[in-house]
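Q: I'm writing a short explainer about UDP-glucose 6-dehydrogenase for a general audience and would like to include a description of its predicted shape. Could you first generate the structure from this sequence?
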Amino acid sequence: MKHIAVIGVGYVGLTTAACLAELGHHVVGVDMDEGKISMLRQGRIPFSEPELPELVERNHQAGRLDFTTAYPEAMQQADMVFICVGTPPTPSGHADMSQVEEAARQVALSARHPLIVILKSTTPPGGNAERVAAILASHLPLGINAPLVVNPEFLREGSAVYDTFHPDRAVIGAWDASAAEEVAALYAPLRCPVLLTDPVSAQFTKYASNAFLATKISFINEISRIAERVGANIHAVAQGMGFDDRIGAEFLEAGLGYGGSCFPKDVLALSAIAEQHGYYSQFLHAVMDINAGQRSLTVAKLDEALGGLHGKRVCVLGLAFKSHTDDVRESPALSVISMLCQQGAYVQAHDPVAMPTAQKVQPSHDTLKYCPDAYTAALGCHAVLIATNWPEFRSLDWSRIHTSMPGKVVLDGRGLLSPDEIRAMGFEYLAFAN
Ligand SMILES: NC(=O)C1=CN([C@@H]2O[C@H](COP(=O)(O)OP(=O)(O)OC[C@H]3O[C@@H](n4cnc5c(N)ncnc54)[C@H](O)[C@@H]3O)[C@@H](O)[C@H]2O)C=CC1
Ligand SMILES: O=C(O)[C@H]1O[C@H](OP(=O)(O)OP(=O)(O)OC[C@H]2O[C@@H](n3ccc(=O)[nH]c3=O)[C@H](O)[C@@H]2O)[C@H](O)[C@@H](O)[C@@H]1O
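A: Of course. Here's the predicted structure. Afterward I'll give you a sentence or two in plain language.
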């Protein structure tokens, strides 16, 4: 059993803290956001993530998981510290390292005995790990050692707890071999492959992995544009491709494209890193351009189907960047809603969990209304856009929706519905090469 401090209790930090506690460690989560910490102390979770509330509550009750805003309190017994703070994009596309650097400074100032500092936040290679190690070294009390280990995170929102307990691998990059072994030991109960490498390669592996997954999505979206022109069905094509183990069946869903707090920022940061090193990556720019293009293509499809958007009423189902989360960072749904409103359409939107977060960043106005359920959102509309693949959208009473809509267009932006069933009800079913 280890004493562990987790700095930053957002999507990654809270999941990491709760899962480590479930594995039997004693964990204290630290955040500068007093609101988040006081919610957690009352047993409430600041965001929506399946399985996490139960896990946090169980471990909090068992005395293995606590929360504080005070670094010294969390650091009192810690022999390991995970840094899980944000690395959002700066205007130039580079990752903003200021939260990580401040966390490292606070950790070092509060350290009273030797410990291992584990960098879980996604941080760009090219001097950043070295800088964090230097910040630690210059702020630690004399005689105290705190080796840095880079251990990037690969969980997905919406299945964060499952992913943490079933990782495909752990990547551990360190200059200090014994610190790397201690971090590897934390993963032993999870029985996953562990790659021990240097810090820069560990950092780069994270960016390369996200860029590859984003590439798969942009690839299938590019193929869907061509498939549409030649009359091929993209789902059949993706399925046929996916049977080949070298290709793999996952991340071949054509549609609105990727969003979220990571693919957009990490692909952009990787291209910025390349440019900083004198290399323009045409490839990464194509991935980003295709992704942005899917959003305008969605609006263009609705425009064509409705004979213009001005004055038309569009129901948007799904507001977060994917299902099973309330995270609206870089949400394709929200950017399509903005474009629809700009072109004079009225939007009626609904999401099973992301209404409060969406309303915060895009408050309702004359032409944008948030609705308590999918049926109210569809009422009086000319078209429905499925923007995230919530399974419950599939099981809606679509004939009830059909009756309540003056227009009959359904644009399935996530390939969620059965085209034959929807067409049989009298809808005009549109998708991306379907
Ligand atoms: N969200 C995801 O699915 C994944 C995120 N990542 C990476 O993990 C990192 C964290 O991401 P999220 O959890 O999404 O971020 P988040 O924004 O949800 O959480 C970050 C937390 O850190 C806190 N914080 C910031 N500065 C602090 C400081 N100096 N001291 C204490 N707390 C501080 C913030 O108040 C916030 O609660 C990022 O680098 C991200 O790229 C990696 C894999 C998955
Ligand atoms: O670094 C990160 O933050 C994380 O980014 C992604 O996880 P996440 O963004 O939570 O969610 P994904 O399931 O990857 O979906 C990302 C976006 O791609 C879209 N997507 C996904 C798959 C697909 O086939 N098509 C597609 O358009 C989703 O709708 C969503 O908007 C990665 O999958 C994680 O491995 C990684 O740890």
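A: For your explainer, you could say: The domain at 263-430 is CATH 3.40.50.720 (Rossmann fold).
Q: Perfect, that's easy to follow.
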